[in-house]
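Session log. Operator J.P. requested a structure for one protein chain; no other inputs attached. Running the standard single-chain path with C-alpha cell output.
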Amino acid sequence: MLNITIYDIAREAGVSPSTVSRVLTNKTCVSEKKRQIVNNIISKHNYRPSAAARSLSGGTKVIGLMAADIRNPYYAAMTIECERAANEQGYTVLLCNMLDEHALEDDHLEKFYAQRVEAIIQLGRRTDDLVSDPAYVEHIRHISRSIPFITTGKLDGVECFSVTFNHAQAMKIVMEYLVSLGHQEIAFIGGEQSVQSTYIKLNQYIQSLETHNLKFRKDFFQEGRYNDAVGYSSLERLLEAKIRPTAVIAVNDVCATGAITAAQDHGLSVPGDISVAGFDNTFLATLIRPSLTTVDCNYPLFGKTLVDIAIQAAQKINPPHEVFIEPKLIVRESCSSPAK
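Structure written below.
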C-alpha cells in the first residue's frame, strides 16, 4: 500500500485511529491482543508515523531543516533562530547538514519525506544556484505536492515558498557608506557568480560604481569561495595590482576576516591603510580586530518568518509565497576615510 496512513492501519486492524496512536506512542490503555494486531500490520507495511499522525496523540510536530553547513556561522545563526521560533510554537526542528554533497542533499529530502514532517526549510545549497538544477527541481516538485517547501533561495519552475535576504539593497548600502567616506577605489572579493546572492551583489556593486561615476576594474572583483583563505589570497592579489583599492567589500564575514589578517600580515593598518567591510553580521564581526563593519540580516526575524510560513503552509493558511528581509548596516571599526 502506497503512502499508508494511520487511518489505513486502523481500518485493516479493525480499530479506531486513536487506538493506533496509542500503540505508536506506547500508551498502556490498549489490550495486548489489539496491540499485537496493530503492530503486525505496522510491520507488514513498514509503516513510519508522520508528524501529522504523531500529533493526533499530542506528539511532537516536526519541521525538517536542511542547512548547507552549520560550521559556517551564518547557517549556525539561522538554525538557532529557526529552532527558537519553532519551539515557541510547539514544533521541533530536525536538522540535517548538506555539506556540499548533492547526494546527501537528496538523501535528506527523502528522509524528511518518509517521516512526513510538517514542512521542509532549506538554507542554501542548490536553492542558491543562479540557474536551477532540473533534476533537483523535479525532486522538490515531487515532495512539495504533499509537504510545504520553504527556502532562502529560489527554484525555477517549482511552487514553493521563499524568504529571501535583499542582497541588492545590502550591497547598495555598503557602497553608499564607503563612497560617503571618500573611497573611489573599492574592490569586491569572494563569492561565485553561479550563486544567485553573489551574482546579485556583483551587479549591484557595478551599478553603484556607475551611479557614482567610478570606474569598474575587472581585477577588483576577486571571485572565489566563501572562506577566510579566499579573503586572504584575494587581498594579497589586490595589493600586487598597479592600482590598490582603498576599501574592500568581502562577500561574507568569514572572507572579511581573511582579508583583514592578510592586510595586517603585510604591515598594513585596517582601516588606516585599507578599509574592510563584510556581510552577515555573525559573531566573527566582534571577535576580529578591528571589529568589522558589516551588514546585518536580522536573524530573529529571518528565522521566525521562515518558521511562520512553514507552519502556515502546513496548516493550509495560504502564506505569502515570497518575502524579503531588509538589511541594516552595522558600523564598527574596520572602515574609515581613505588615507591622504
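Operator note: The chain has three domains: 6-55, 61-166+299-326, 167-296.
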